[in-house]
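Dear support,

I submitted the protein below through the web form. The confirmation email said the job was done, but the results page showed an empty box. After a refresh the structure appeared. I'm attaching both so you can tell me whether what I see now is the final result or a partial one.
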Amino acid sequence: MCSISPVELLRRQYLQHVDPDSLRLPSLDVLRLPEIQKQIYDTMFSQSALSYPLSSRYQYRVLKRLIGMMEQAIEDPEEDEISDDLASCFARLVTQAPASELQAAQQKSYVTYTAQLQGPGPLTITLLEARSILGSSGDTGLRTWEAALRLGSFLCSDDGRHLIDGKNILELGAGSGFLSILCAKLLNARSVVATDGSREVVDQLQTNLDLNGLYEDQIVDIMILEWGHILTEEVLHNKGRPRTFELVLGSDIAVEENHVSNMKESNADHLQTYDSSSIPALTFTMQELFVRYRQLKILVSATMRNKATFATFLNACSTWNEKLTKKRSVLD
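What the results page shows now:
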């Protein structure tokens, strides 16, 4: 993989809404240079820099940290200075009186992810997400979580790409649609069915497909799929023809949401925990898929938040694997 410049790395983190305190900034010696400050302004903060606007509050927080670092980098006040363009932009953002953390957290923002792939054109995915906390309805599917990003990185690797290329993919709990869009837009999937149990999330999925040049009835279909129920006709057939799937994807697909309405923090990562009550329904749906599609593979990624609940999931998989073997033997 080709190396990228410190400014390009910063820009990619910025477009992905990485927390300003966690950004990997260029060194002080680099930030001091006028040409680097111009590049930062031209590619991140000028009016024409971005196809999709970022929130004013996020821009303000990032630029505040950058200017603080640039001030530290000054060695000779007669020679070193902060770009007038950056200073003017910061002044404008200050006067806009950014919303409070809680208000900003409830607003949806455009987030752009850059895939770890080589090829022509922009290898990016842009999504409209509720970034900082869960959506106002308490729905975790309105943003992209770490487990989806890690699974996406694997699918972009040499070991992962062959699992998607030319294959028919089903995603459970698609959420923001990151994985489904990655497969359809950048990894050459033959077809993708993106499913979720939430109507609000499914509606948002269509918006994110449109942002990435994907539309229903072409490569990607989107639909509601409630776990624990018999698979619907819509899932099993497309325009009267049976669907086939070679791979099922899922990331962070068993989470507890009953505490979300009381959330006050701007980042929900520390509050989100796995909910063992959803595991029987999830594994039932997986078993139904395995019975219908004998060569099927299921690939699930999860953030380890609760070892006991994760063990419950593995035990459930082991139990229904034994039942599945017996059921297939009867069918054969």
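Response: this is the final, complete result; the empty box was a page-load delay. The CA atoms of residues 221 and 245 lie 13 Å apart.
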